[in-house]
Amino acid sequence: MKKFLALIVLSVAVCATAGAAVQEKSEGAESKAEAKKEEGVFPVVARWANFIVLFGGLIYLLRKPASEFFSTRSNDIAGGLQRAQDAQTSAQARMDEIEKRLAQLSSEVSGLRAEAEKESLTDREKILAEAKREVERVIEQSRQEIERVGRTVEREIKEHIADLVIDRAGNTLRTEMTQDDQKRIVVRFIQKL
Fold first, then answer.
1. 3-class DSSP state for residue 12?
2. What SS3 state is found at 124?
3. Are 3 and 60 a contacting pair, CB within 8 Å?
4. Within the chain, what is the greatest distance between any pair of CA atoms?
5. Percent helix, percent strand, percent coil in the chain, to nearest 5
6. Dist CA 45 CA 53 (whole Å)
7. What is the pTM of this model?
8. Are 55 and 13 in contact (CB under 8 A)?
9. 193: helix, strand or coil
10. How far is Cα of residue 187 from the mean position of the Cα atoms in its chain?
């Protein structure tokens, strides 16, 4: 209620000042000069008092909202500065972490390269060993196959030679063997038994 009454008083003071200003403008330049000459100290003091009351009332009415506004604004600015400081600190920490990772990245790449070369050598050795085993296995299979084929060929040759010998011996026996030779062979055979 006090604020409402103070606002009414201020409005009246503003209207009175504005009315006096309008009246002065309407009078003309000559009457202004005469009015100023006739004007005394009281109207000037009244105008200054009106001015002081008007601005004093405005200051009184706007003091609390203005202080709240400036206090809130100050707190908002301080909070914004604090958030900006926190964000800068966080960004700096992330930047330091990224730089640290980048520094470690080259050593990690070197480590991975060395590990890949080591695995490559190991794989190469395994492949060579496996290839040697495979070659040895193929050689052993080939050797066994050659031996088998050799035995088969040898047996076939022996059979063929035996057949040829038997045929020749048979031919020889038929043509050159006499009855006495046959008796001697039978006797020898019986004696061996």
1. helix
2. helix
3. no
4. 199
5. 95, 0, 5
6. 12
7. 0.34
8. no
9. coil
10. 106
Q: Which two tokens stand for residue 100?
A: 């640290």
In the prediction, which pLDDT does 158 show? 83
What type of residue is 127? Answer: I
* Rounded Cα–Cα distance for residues 95 and 103 (Å): 12
Token pair, residue 11, equals 């409005």
- The answer to whether 27 and 35 are in contact (CB under 8 A) is yes
> Given this model, what pLDDT does residue 157 score?
87
pLDDT tens, 135-188?
Answer: 999 999 989 988 988 888 888 888 888 888 778 777 776 666 677 777 787 888
Contact (Cβ atoms closer than 8 angstroms) between residue 61 and residue 6: yes
Give the tokens for residue 172: 């020889």
Q: Are 20 and 54 in contact (CB under 8 A)?
A: no
The Cα-based distances of 35 to 13, 43, 44, 47 in angstroms read: 22, 11, 12, 15
CB of 17 closer than 8 Å to CB of 47: yes
CA 50, 52, 55, 60 torsion: positive or negative?
A: negative
What is the torsion angle, in degrees rounded to the nearest 10, for the CA atoms of residue 28, residue 31, residue 32 and residue 34? Answer: 160
Q: Which of 24, 96, 9 is nearest to 55 (CA)?
A: 9
Residue in 42, 53, 48, 43 with CA at minimum distance from that of residue 13: 53
Hunting for tokens 């470690």 — which residue is that?
Answer: 104
* Separation of alpha carbons 193 and 189, rounded Å: 7
